[in-house]
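Quick log. Single chain, no ligands specified.
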Amino acid sequence: MSELGDRLRAARESQGISLSQAAAETRILQRYLVALEEGDYKYLPGDVYARGFIRNYALYLKIPVEELIQLYRYERGRTEPIVIRPAVVAPRIRGAVLPNVFGVFFVVLTIVGLGYLVLRGVEFLNVPSNATNIVATDATATIAVVAPTPMPAEPTAPAAPTAVAVQPVAQTVTVAVTPTLEAPIVLGIKIDDGQNPGSWVNVKIDNKSVFQRVLKAGESLRYTAQHSVWVRAGNAYVVTVNVNGVDQRLSTTPGDVVSFSWPPP
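-> predicted structure:
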């Protein structure tokens, strides 16, 4: 038995409510209510859903919610103690002298290599300048001046027509650019109106969690996303999602836990 389960059972029995009636009105499966009252948390679907069930059940029975959540965290942590085991093999202690010797060797080797590269670079830069001077000197020494030989006069040819340069006409090309949508995915989440306990809702936009708590009857959310959306509802029977104007009911069975993603996997 657990203190949390005792308080839930006592509150339910004091109000004359049966387990089947509580399951129907809270839309939580009866086996989950039994697991909460017996303290058998291993039969619950997960920690997030367990806290959602406790919150909805406490609101239904009109008892403090946060106090019961703290009791659940305490009892869940107490039933799963952390076991510390000593290390079997002692860690090896590496020497400090040998790495230092290798470090000095590699530093010296690096400095020598850099010096060699610098000297080679200086020699490479000097070679083109000297080669240019040598070629210019040799070319100057072999130049000979030859007197021109007079050629017979040729008949005067008619003047060739003058070529006129035609400038190409610049053309303006208009390219239509399709604007990029700022939010390709528009997501809406709504809880049914009327008498219902609402639903625990977890929302991720572009793989980033943006919402995680209980939505009450009649409440709604709206988000925009660039790549993907993901919704998990603890009581999907009362939840409707809307993606880009299209409604989708998450479940037709009370107490269902449903995950929804867009685009579909």
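The two ends are 42 Å apart (CA to CA).
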